[in-house]
Amino acid sequence: MPVMDLDDWPGRELTDEELDAAYNVRAKAGEELFARHMARYRELSDAAVDRLPGHPGIVYDEPSGERLDVWGAPEGGGARPVFVFLHGGYWRALSRSDSAFMARPLHENGVATVVPDYTLAPGATLEEIVRQVRASIAWVHRHGRRYGLDPDRVVVGGSSAGGHLTAMTMLDGWQAPGLPDDAVKAAMPFSGLFDIRPLTRVYVNEWLGLDVPRAAALSPELAPSGRRCPAVVAVAEHDGGGFLEQSRRFARHWGGTAELMIVPDRDHFDVVLDLADPDSAPFRALLGLVRGIE
């Protein structure tokens, strides 16, 4: 296998200003629209979990003390397939309380939702954040049944930074002893980042503090993976240029088990909110992944 040139990444010829434009989706949206989107995350999440059966605030990772919420699991026995949603916010913002907007329609379709928090940067390195979200998947496998979750039917998804974290759970080699190689049966990253080397040259690195070798090691597109779980790689029609390019490239990289879904009339922030709408194409695609698990 040839030695990888870590500095040879798509877009490296762009200026810092051009890279910033490709990845600064908050600036592209504008502060007013961005604030409206963030308010909708919390409003839709609050409405989704109101009087929904659940188990909020469970510590899933003892070293960090981070917690997760379980929503929509059956109360009378049995175990449901589970969608684990990893929130975005460029690894430094948002929380599980902003990120349960899909819980009610999934519950109505027989699927439980798990929403973990993770320590936000710069309070944790990106390596530690990845470790934590993988620990949340391990928690579902080890403890999920007592909360009505079926560990043999786990689908992981997330938006933006959560899309990157989703892809990091899709890889081989991280599973702890006792965890199956196919702990994640299917995945749906939204507007994800799969080669994060470009971020070493944009404002995001103010809180990530990455160099190129660390960024390469944390880039799921560069990681070897023998097993390729089914995936829908979703991105908004009006997303940032960097996110559109990366989603297209990762879908090609993942191969025949991946479908690229470019969602029309959506931007970086509202595309994932389609998961709150059971009639939307992204929601139907998610259900298809869940129901396709053998």
UniProtKB/TrEMBL annotation:
Membrane-spanning segments: none
Domain of life: Bacteria
Stored SUPFAM superfamilies: alpha/beta-Hydrolases (SSF53474)
Record key words, sorted: Hydrolase
BD-FAE-like domain mapped to chain residues: 68-171
Signal peptide range: none
Molecular functions per Gene Ontology: hydrolase activity
Protein's name according to its UniProt entry: Alpha/beta hydrolase
The organism's taxonomic lineage, starting at the top: Bacteria, Bacillati, Actinomycetota, Actinomycetes, Streptosporangiales
